[in-house]
Amino acid sequence: MGLESKLKQDNFITTKLDAIIAWSRKSSVWPMPMGISCCAIEMMAAADPKYDIARFGSEVMRFTPRQCDLMIVAGTVTYKMAHVVRKIYDQMPDPKWVIAMGACTSSGGMYRSYNVVQGIDQFLPVDVYLAGCPPRPDNLLNALIQIQDKISRTKARDFPNKPLPELKVLQEN
Amino acid sequence: MELKETILKNLKEKFPAVNFEETEFRGELTLTFDKKFVVEVCSFLKENTELQFNMCTDVTAIDWAKRKNRFTVVYQIYSLSHKFRLRLKCNVDESDCSINSVSSVWKSANWYERETYDMYGITFNNHPDLRRMYMPEDFEYHPLRKDFPLMGIPGSLPLPKKD
Fold it and tell me: B117 — phi, psi (to 5°)?
């Protein structure tokens, strides 16, 4: 980021609070690995040394939704699983983002059938749709970069403190 | 004597009243018989020392849509000691859409029968725990029936609300 060179000179920078908050947010996007089927293998590959998702600050795959900013829905979502995915999404603290990874999550993919949700945008707000069956790890990194671009355009006041959804809503979903 | 002949001889001796219709396709033997005797025949095939069909690999069904006996329940069984596969078929009509459960004979039939119940709506009498296997428990239809549309019945599977 060129910060090191700044340290040698004046030892301080001027910036906007919005900018530095967005910068720190986008540099430490902690993913929730919602690995439901084969796309999860490519998601795991994205974390290995060859593709190294740590270069983008997203190596901390958290298996509790309470510590996550980004949900990577990787795999076929059936109608039964949709309720689980939504329940986990509801438990993530704001602000949060969603990647629909692969053809199945984006549109139902090859499963044009009664049991598979034809696109998770029917019950989740999706930020980036990712093509491929499954997408290659570098494609996932591309989606992550797009999420980072989206985060860097946000302002801190876009995300006021929202109350957590009531227990009743969670149970309904 | 080949095992195939042993099976038929034993079955005909034990159940003279039952009509076993035998067909053979690519060396695999299939026996079709009345659904009333399914538990007796299955436990005989398992317990008989000459046969020992001690493994039930699958229970499923066929929906013939317009035929008189609409469904056929199919049992795929295997004799580990003889390395022999046998297929049993029983016709089930829609008016009396039930058959006795063989889960008392082979424990593995328990889940196979649940799956068949879920997908075809055939009730298995005396089943210890006849719940749906795949679909939600409050689902009203049976997806592998021929009259079930490919994309399902709109509104039958609820989704979570999108804010």
Answer: -65, -45
CATH 3.40.50.300 fits domain A30-172: no
Task: Round to whole Å and give the CA distance between B49 and A120.
Answer: 55
pLDDT class for A171, splitting at 50, 70, 90? low
CA dist B30 to B27, B88, B89, B90, Å? 10, 6, 7, 11
CB atoms B160 and A86 under 8 Å: yes
Average pLDDT on B10-33 reads 90
| Contact state of B135 with A115 under an 8 Å Cβ cutoff | yes
Find the domain containing B121 and state its range: 3-125
Specify if B143 maps to a domain.
no
Q: Chain A partners of B153 at a C-beta cutoff of 8 Å?
A: 114
- Does residue B160 have a pLDDT over 60? yes
**Distance of alpha carbon B61 from the chain centroid:** 6
Structure tokens at B133: 């296997």
Closest CB to B150: pick one of A80, A114, A121.
Answer: A114
Q: Find which of B147, B151, B153, B156 to mutate to test the A interface (most A CBs within 10 Å of its CB).
A: B151
Number of domains in chain B: 1
- The residue type at B81: S
pTM, two decimal places: 0.83
Task: Note the pLDDT tens digit of each residue in A10-42.
Answer: 777 888 888 999 999 999 999 999 989 999 999
A79 Cα to chain B: minimum distance (Å): 7
Q: Does residue B160 sit within a domain?
A: no
Minimal Cα–Cα distance from B95 to chain A, Å?
A: 26
Instruction: Determine the distance in angstroms separating the CA of B143 from the nearest CA of chain A, rounded to an integer.
Output: 8
Q: Side chain identity at B139, as an amino acid letter?
A: F
Would the pLDDT of A173 be above 70?
no
Suggest the residue from A71, A94, A114 to mutate for an interface test with chain B (most B CBs closer than 10 A). A114
In a domain, B130, yes or no: no
